Every structure is written in structure tokens, then in C-alpha cells.
């Protein structure tokens, strides 16, 4: 089983346990909203564009709300669990699911986990942790492009990745999963540490990061 499939299964199990009205870290979204988002992303290419393209976001939100209202939550979760249809690019292009969905489902799994009381970071497989670090490192310039200060990401093993070159700068240290959440805009729920002047740190923490 790929890591993408394992995270999909784990998230689906968690959604089933929590039901449709539990909170998530996605602002304004319940677990039902998140499930509908994931179904649209893989099953409704006509509406998925608004996930990344702002002028189309209104249509995507409308379709998401209609889907959430029209389909029972267990059926939505089952669609998430089953994954994309065979005709989709994820089914037709070998390796695309792992390349695209590993981080997607990791982050959304944590969006649900960390919105619930008593959460703690998970211990992830070593190979998955290394995949996360490589993706975080290679994508840092994109995910941190809106930062008002320079950013250097530092793995807890000492490795570093440049995020944005500017002065003053902040060094953000954490395990790869925590750095992933940080760079994807979940700063308040990522267990990272900061080195830099307090004003720069607060400006970075308050900025909307991510894709």
C-alpha cells in the first residue's frame, strides 16, 4: 500500500468516526465540507478548478455545498475512501496518485486530527518522513513566497532548506511533518520553533502561507 493510499484510508476512518459536524483546521469547514472538497477534487473536474483559481472559486464552493447537502455523509466518505474513478488522470497515469495525493491526504488528515482535543503528533515511517522533507525543501520557495521576511527551514537532524531570501530572516525548525504543516499555512498548529527577532517571527506566523 502506498503512503497516499494509507493516509486516504486513515482519514476516511477518522471521518467515519467523527461524523459530518466535527471541526477541522480549514477555516469555516466541518468534516462534511472537507469530505465534499476531496470528492470534488477527484470526481468533478468541471468544478475542481476553483480550488486553485480564485475567479472560479465561487462555482466550486457552490458545487461543494450542493454535494454536501445532497449526498449522505457516509456516502461522501465512501467516495473519498474509494478514490478517483478509473477514467481520471490519477487512475490513468502511473505514479500520479502517490506524487499528488501523498501530501494532500497527509495535510488533510492532520486538519481533522489537530482540530480535535488531545491530539499529539504521529510517529511516521522513516521513508515517508524523508519524502516529506524532500517535498517541503523543493516546494519551499513557492509555499513561502508570501512571507514578509526571509525564511530558512531546518530539519531537526540539522539539514536546512532555503524558503525565501530576504532580511531580516527567521529560522523555522521542526520535524518534516511539522514543517509541512507550517509551509501549508497551519502555523498555529505546527510544532515548530522560531529563531529571529520577535517582530519578524510574529509577521511570519500571521501571514497566509501555502499554495
Automatic annotation (TrEMBL):
InterPro entries linked to this entry: CHP03085 (IPR017519), DinB/YfiT-like (IPR034660), Maleyloyr_isom (IPR017517), MDMPI_metal-binding (IPR024344)
Residue stretches making up the Mycothiol-dependent maleylpyruvate isomerase metal-binding domain: 5-41
SUPFAM superfamilies: DinB/YfiT-like putative metalloenzymes (SSF109854)
Superkingdom to which the source organism belongs: Bacteria
Pfam families found in the cross-reference section: MDMPI_N
Signal sequence residues: none
Name of the featured protein: TIGR03085 family metal-binding protein
Organism of this sequence: Sphaerisporangium corydalis
Amino acid at each position: 500500500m502506498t503512503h497516499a493510499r494509507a493516509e486516504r484510508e486513515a482519514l476516511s476512518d477518522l471521518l467515519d468516526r467523527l461524523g459530518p459536524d466535527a471541526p477541522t483546521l480549514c477555516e469555516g469547514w466541518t468534516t462534511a465540507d472537507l469530505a465534499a472538497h476531496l470528492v470534488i477534487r477527484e470526481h468533478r473536474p468541471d468544478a475542481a478548478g476553483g480550488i486553485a483559481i480564485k475567479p472560479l472559486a465561487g462555482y466550486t464552493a457552490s458545487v461543494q455545498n450542493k454535494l454536501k447537502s445532497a449526498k449522505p455523509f457516509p456516502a461522501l466518505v465512501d467516495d473519498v475512501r474509494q478514490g478517483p474513478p478509473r477514467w481520471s488522470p490519477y487512475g490513468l497515469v502511473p505514479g500520479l496518485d502517490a506524487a499528488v495525493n501523498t501530501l494532500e491526504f497527509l495535510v488533510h488528515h492532520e486538519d481533522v486530527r489537530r482540530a480535535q482535543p488531545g491530539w499529539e503528533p504521529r510517529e511516521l515511517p522513516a521513508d515517508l518522513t524523508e519524502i516529506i522533507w524532500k517535498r517541503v525543501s523543493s516546494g519551499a520557495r513557492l509555499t513561502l513566497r508570501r512571507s514578509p521576511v526571509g525564511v530558512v527551514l531546518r530539519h531537526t537532524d540539522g539539514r536546512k532548506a532555503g524558503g525565501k531570501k530576504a532580511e531580516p530572516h527567521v529560522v523555522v525548525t521542526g520535524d518534516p511533518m511539522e514543517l509541512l504543516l507550517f509551509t501549508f499555512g497551519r502555523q498555529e498548529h505546527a510544532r515548530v520553533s522560531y529563531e529571529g527577532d520577535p517582530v519578524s517571527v510574529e509577521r511570519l506566523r500571521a501571514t497566509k502561507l501555502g499554495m
